[in-house]
Every structure is written in structure tokens, then in C-alpha cells.
Design goal:
By secondary structure, the protein is α+β, with helices and mostly antiparallel strands. The chain contains 10 helices and 13 strands. It folds into 2 domains: 152 residues, 60s Ribosomal Protein L30, Chain: A (2-Layer Sandwich); 169 residues, Phosphoribosyl-aminoimidazole Synthetase, Chain A, domain 2 (Alpha-Beta Complex).
């Protein structure tokens, strides 16, 4: 082993950040199997099974980091744990087929509580047409951890990687951004109010949409279906789990390009806009850095513009430019800034 074991050296993981850490840990793992087509670095790994492509992605949800059981119903948690994984499979322009579910739990959780989680998992399996085919169950000293792996199928030539964006391609975004983050802010605010005065009732009715985006996200299977119907293959694609800015940076870095993003093209739901203003936040900042929207960011060849122009819920928000032109945001006020990627820092 090399210098990693030098006992005198202790590097805090915060120095590297999530993505730096992943790069650091995985850089000495060259792919050796001819069937390993894509390894670390995309939404899912791609494995060649004699011409059929299998895509695999895994994600973990940790109590206290990704969810708070004070406001996260267990059934929704089960549903969301599946959705966040399927989203990565759709982001490859592939179809999820199976999942495995691993769970670590303390004795705080009853059989009935686990049944609720699995009720949510079952609902997601049936909605997205995937089979639960395995997993692992173990105990944890405290708290709940859910890890889901999704396995899907894709067609050679039709997968959409993060590295396929080319200068001149159009940047497209599905749905709307920032709502899940604002839903979380509302849930956190009501939790704090409740903790300081357990007698008061949370005011959640008016914010159903935003809260729903946090507690019951959907993966954009409908978009992948639309692509097939319209004969469209995005040149690159990534799902928006950590905020548009961070995902756009991944896409640009891996494609070796820059981007010119139009603020006016970034879709924001009116409820999100209102809530952001109430929280004294800038709506575009919530859209750029919020996270957990599980929408898709993709690029298309401009010759395919007619194929997406009239499709519902797809917004054209800019253009891919040369790497040397950087990643820029053209604001509604007419200014051009360097875009900043914040992403999540859980450590
Ligand atoms: P996503 O947000 O799409 O789930 P991540 O940012 O979590 O993707 O991960 C980026 C890439 O790094 C993925 O290809 C993932 O499989 C890989 N990865 C993340 N953590 C690890 C790890 N601990 N060891 C190996 N690969 C990892
Ligand atoms: Mg992803």
C-alpha cells in the first residue's frame, strides 16, 4: 500500500468535498473487464452483456442527513428511496427493470413501521414497473439507512451520457426547479415552530405543491417515453438531484465544453417563486442550487429542435459553448456572471 497509511497525516473529508472525495478514492480503479463500458462518473454504470446494455445505479438515504422522520412519512420515504435511483437510470435514457433494497435499522423501528416503508417501495415498483429482487437487512446503533440499487436496460447508441454535449447543442430542462428545496424549508420551519410550541398546528395546506415535491418526488419516466415517441436521443443527459448549477458543471466538465444559461429559460413554479420571496431567498438561487428536484437536464443537437419545441414540460434554457467561454448565467437583468456550483455538502 502507498502513502495513504501514513499515520501522521489526517485529511478532513471537507477539504475534498463530495466530488473531490469520490475522484480521490476511485482514481486507482482502472476498468479491466471488457464488459465494463462506463464506470464511476455518470448517473449509472454501463455494462455490456453481449450487446445488451445493463445500467446500474445506487443511492443511500440516511436519517438525519437526507430525511427527518418528524415530517417524513415512512411510506413516502420508501417511495422516494426508489424514485431517486430510478431517476439516475432514466438520466441514462434507459429503462429501470429491477431494484434491490438494503436497510439498516435500530430497534426503534417496529415491523409495522417497516411495512409502511415497504408499502411505499411497492407503490413505486408498481408505478414504474420494476421488480424488487433482493437486498440486505442489518441493524444500526441508531437511525435508519436505506440503500437502493437500480438495474436497467438500455440500447446501444441510445444511451445518453454526461460526456456527449457538443458546442452549439441546446440546453433543455424538464419540469421546474427549486420546489423541492422550498418544500424542505417549509417543513423545517414548521418543525421548529412545533418544537418551540407543540400546541400549534402546522400550516401546510397552502403549500401542498412544494411539500409534495419534497416528500413525494417522481422520476421523469414520462420524458424518456416522449423521447422514444419523437425519435429523439439527447446528446447528453444528467438528472438534477444536487441543483442545476452543479449538474451543469458535471455535464460541461465531462463533455469538455462550456455553457451559456439563460435565467429566463430556467423553469420555476409560481408557488416556488412566492415561497422563495417569503423566505427572502432569490428564486433563481433556489433553482440553481436547491437540489432534489429529480428533473432532467439534457442537451440536444440543434437539428432536433423541432422534435422538442412543442413537447410539454421541456424548456430550452441556453446553449453549449466552448470550454474556454466558461459556464455563464445570463440574468434577466441583462448581466452575465460566472455560474457557481454549490451542490450539497453533507460532511
Ligand atoms: P448521482 O448524483 O447521479 O447519484 P453521485 O454524485 O452520487 O451521482 O456519484 C457520481 C459518480 O460517482 C457515480 O458514477 C457513482 O456511481 C460514483 N460513486 C459515488 N460514490 C462512490 C464510491 N464511494 N465509490 C465508488 N464510486 C462512487
Ligand atoms: Mg444522477
Amino acid at each position: 500500500m502507498s502513502d495513504h497509511q501514513d499515520q501522521t497525516k489526517r485529511t478532513d473529508v471537507n477539504e475534498l468535498g463530495e466530488f473531490g472525495l469520490i475522484d480521490h478514492l476511485t482514481r486507482d480503479f482502472p476498468l479491466t473487464q471488457p464488459s465494463s463500458l462506463t464506470g464511476v462518473g455518470d448517473d449509472a454504470a454501463v455494462i455490456d452483456n453481449n450487446g445488451y446494455l445493463t445500467v446500474v445505479s445506487t443511492d443511500m438515504l440516511v436519517e438525519g442527513i437526507h430525511f427527518d422522520l418528524m415530517y417524513f412519512p415512512l411510506k413516502h420515504l420508501g417511495y422516494k428511496s426508489v424514485v431517486v435511483n430510478l431517476s439516475d437510470i432514466f438520466a441514462m435514457n434507459a429503462w429501470p427493470r429491477q431494484i434491490t433494497v438494503s436497510i439498516a435499522l435500530s430497534n426503534r423501528f417496529s415491523v409495522e413501521a417497516l411495512e409502511e416503508i415497504y408499502d411505499g417501495i411497492r407503490t413505486a415498483c408498481s408505478h414504474y414497473g420494476v421488480d424488487l429482487v433482493g437486498g440486505d437487512t442489518t441493524s444500526s446503533p441508531r437511525g435508519l439507512i436505506l440503500s437502493v440499487t437500480a438495474i436497467g436496460q438500455g440500447e446501444a447508441g441510445k444511451l445518453a451520457y454526461r460526456n456527449g454535449a457538443r458546442v452549439g447543442d441546446l440546453i433543455c430542462i424538464t419540469g421546474n426547479l427549486g420546489a423541492a428545496y422550498l418544500g424542505l424549508q417549509i417543513l423545517e420551519r414548521e418543525k421548529q415552530l412545533y418544537l418551540s410550541n407543540p400546541g400549534i398546528q402546522p400550516e401546510l395546506e397552502e403549500q401542498q405543491y412544494l411539500i409534495g415535491r419534497q416528500l413525494k418526488p417522481e422520476a421523469r419516466m414520462d420524458m424518456i417515453e416522449l423521447f422514444v415517441k419523437n425519435g429523439l436521443v439527447p446528446t447528453s443527459m444528467i438528472d438534477i438531484s444536487d441543483g442545476l448549477a452543479s449538474e451543469l458543471f458535471h455535464l460541461c466538465k465531462q463533455s469538455g465544453v462550456g455553457a451559456f444559461l439563460e435565467e429566463s429559460g430556467v423553469p420555476i413554479h409560481p408557488d416556488a417563486e412566492m415561497a422563495a420571496i417569503n423566505f427572502k431567498l432569490d428564486p433563481i438561487t433556489c433553482a440553481l442550487s436547491g437540489g432534489e428536484d429529480y428533473e432532467l437536464l439534457f442537451t440536444i443537437d440543434p437539428k432536433d429542435l423541432d422534435k422538442v419545441k412543442y413537447l410539454p414540460d421541456i424548456y430550452i434554457a441556453g446553449e453549449i459553448v466552448k470550454a474556454s467561454d466558461g459556464v455563464k448565467l445570463h440574468t434577466k437583468g441583462g448581466n452575465i456572471h460566472d455560474l457557481k456550483a454549490q451542490g450539497w455538502r453533507h460532511f
